[in-house]
Every structure is written in structure tokens, then in C-alpha cells.
Amino acid sequence: MSIVLPGDHVPARHVNLKLGPGLLQVSSVTPKGADSIVVATRAGELNHSANRSRWFVEGNSRRYIPASQEAVVGVIIQKVGEGYRVDIGSAHPASLDSLAFEGATKRNKPNLKARCLVYARVSLAHKDMEPELECFDAQTRKSEGFGELKGGFAARCSLKMCRDLLDPKHFLLPLLGGRFPLEVAVGLNGRVWVSAKEIKQTIAMVRCIEAADPDGGGMDAVAVKTFLETLEV
User: Fold this and answer.
1) Within the chain, which residue ranges are assigned CATH 3.30.1370.10?
2) Where do the TM regions start and end (predicted)?
């Protein structure tokens, strides 16, 4: 990892290159002809996936900036025509077509109400356009976990905490899963949906996420385990 500032060139090269938050691909003219380069648009830590196909800048931003292919937890604001407007915590609401669900047709499509929660994937993200969402995997056309989130509770946390929870090596979710059955949907927009059989278990998950959040308690595995003992779940 390295620190980048706005305007810095980033050595992002891959056949299936995907740029996340804080990066922009621009065209440039060199003595060898036209080329494209990747530059940072905000300050932070430069990160990439293990195979170097996905790159992003991890900053201390409070507002979510939509990026294509990212999973988000959204709240339905209203129904508009054949779709919905969804609050995903960004500067502008996102749009979700009612047909953007697995198996949805004009005669058979979900009927979501205001304040319903959805787990969706950002299919279009452009600074000059409203973000667009889909509730299925673009390749398989299957839900793959996306869709309406029923019951449970949507907790808010830092954007960094969301990325930490998606890391298989992070301690929190395995620790909680060893105590009781749970369901979790992690959005990269600073929202995590959690659900358990008992209300006290759901509350415990939310409190542990807040405790482990770098912008909150910042507890490590040992501290969270001790804290969990006091919750009696």
C-alpha cells in the first residue's frame, strides 16, 4: 500500500481492470500516440486486489461515492414509474428498475414499499449521471444474495469498516458466527444489514460492529471477545 494525492499517476494495469473509489482513467497524448492513464482523484491509501485487477483509494471519506460493481445496502425512497429511487448514502439517490431482479417480468415483479431495504449492485456510476442499481449478478442473472432484505437491522459504520468486514481474514464475523447463527449483507456504502434469530443477538452484532469500527471503538479481537461476554449472548 502507498499514499496517493489527487492527480498522482497510479500504475494500474490489467486485462480486466476495474477502478473503485478515488481513481479515474483518463486519456493522454504521448510521443508514441494516444494512451490512457489512471490518476487519483482523492487522497488516501492506494489498494488493489490480490490479482491486481481491482484498484481503489481508501480514504477517510464520510460520504459514499458510488463505484461500478460495488455492493450496497439501500433504502427505498419512493416508487417512480417502473422503478424505484433508492437512498444509498451518496450525494444523489440511485435508480433501481423493477425488472432488475432475478426472474422479474412485467407481470411478475417485486412490489417494494418506501423504507424497504435492498441489497444491490451498482451497475452504473458516473459523476454526471444518477447511479443505477441491479439486484442480480450481471453474469449469471441470478440473485446471488441480492434483493430485498426482510427483517433484521441496518447498521451504519465507516466505509473502511465495511471493507474490513468483506476481508475473509477479519476476525469479527467469524467470531460472531461462532456464537450464534446469523445473516449479514455488507454494503460498501457504510451500511451493514444484520439478522439473527433473537433480537438481543442482532443488537449484539450491531454493538460489536460499532466497537470494532476504526472510527468508533477500534477494538481488536481480544477486546471485542471480552465485550461480547458482557452482552450475554
Assistant:
1) 153-231
2) none
**55 neighbors 46 (Cβ within 8 angstroms):** yes
pTM over 0.85: no
Strands 94-101 and 71-80: unpaired
Q: What's the grid cell of residue 60?
A: 477517510
Residue matched to cell numbers 451493514: 192
Residue 59 has pLDDT above 60, yes or no: yes
Spell out the residues 6+ positions from residue 151 whose beta carbon is closer than 8 angstroms to its own.
195
The C-alpha cell that represents 5 in the structure block: 494525492
Instruction: Tell me the fold of 153-231.
Output: Ribosomal Protein S8; Chain: A, domain 1 (3.30.1370)
47 touches 159 (CB < 8 A)? no
Terminal-residue alpha carbon distance, the chain? 38
Look at domain 71-149 and name its CATH class.
mainly beta
